[in-house]
């Protein structure tokens, strides 16, 4: 049988054409909440929210920090804020172990004495020592449990603050996007979250205190939760001295309300978690104030107490600047 001839040309396999050509992905993160550049005029500005979904901060450039890192950083900060708690808890465990060992030894002495009348004279002393050891175990267990609960609560609070510090915001109109942690040491942030009407009314109530709030390093982050754009009127028409005064007020208003949140879905998620933990209705308008070092000073339902801020917060300039950064009042 003759062998079959081998074809001179190799067999070719045709591949189907691609069904979809994907455009190149842009590396710039899209801001979902920004001040309209055309809205900032002499009479005022209007905030607008984009309809496109926001990418999560984990996908944004320069934000590769995971939740585990937030928890680790919170534990480090907890050790710094309460440096002797770990030492106390160590000694509590040591004392519990010592008292437990003493209780075990007392039991080994008590059981034979109860069965031997010749040793009945030492039963009372053994029972006394056993009672002391059991009481010591109970006391140190209570102290250890109290410190453990306080530590867990502090770490949970600091973890929430670390998650907040990694949320993104935009400084000024068309400014750069930075994490909230960039404001530590330079500004006291006040977050105003609620419907557009609530944000606009909070803005109007802050106008009499603009100069005092700026001297105390306060910056406001408006966050309308209903998706509408609050109209923030920064100035009005005027002439002469009234016009110059209006321009000064408008400039201070823009500097005080210059922040806008980016990736609003993450901001909404963080606020929803805080409301749930505080047993606050999801649709309630709230405010949240931070200290100069980024810790949460206080929060509440309703309008921010601007007058209380002025009364309690120290100025950021002068001989006392920096001394009372952690003593920012309770509001």
Molecular structure report:
This protein is an alpha+beta fold. Helix content is 43%, strand content 14%. It has helices at 67-81, 85-115, 123-165, 196-206, 210-215, 241-256, 264-277, 306-312; strands at 33-35, 45-49, 168-171, 177-179, 188-194, 218-224, 231-232, 259-261, 286-290, 296-301. It has a four-stranded mixed β-sheet. β9 (286-290) and β10 (296-301) form a beta hairpin. α1 crosses α3. Mean pLDDT is 75; it is low at 6-66 and 237-242.
Helix and strand succession?
Answer: EEHHHEEEHHEEHEHEEH
Oligomer: single chain
Overall form = elongated
Number of distinct beta strands: 10
SS-based structural class?
alpha+beta
Main sheet?
4 strands, mixed
- Helical proportion? 40-55%
- Rg, please? 32 Å
* Main sheet: strand order: 6-5-9-10
Number of helices: 8
Q: Give the mean pLDDT.
A: 75
Low-confidence stretches: 6-66, 237-242
Terminal Cα separation, in Å?
A: 101 Å
Strand content: 5-15%
Brief rundown of the structure:
The protein has 331 residues and is an alpha+beta fold. 43% of the residues lie in helices and 14% in strands.
Descriptive tags:
elongated, single chain, alpha+beta, 14% strand, four-stranded mixed beta sheet, three-stranded antiparallel beta sheet, 331 residues, 43% helix
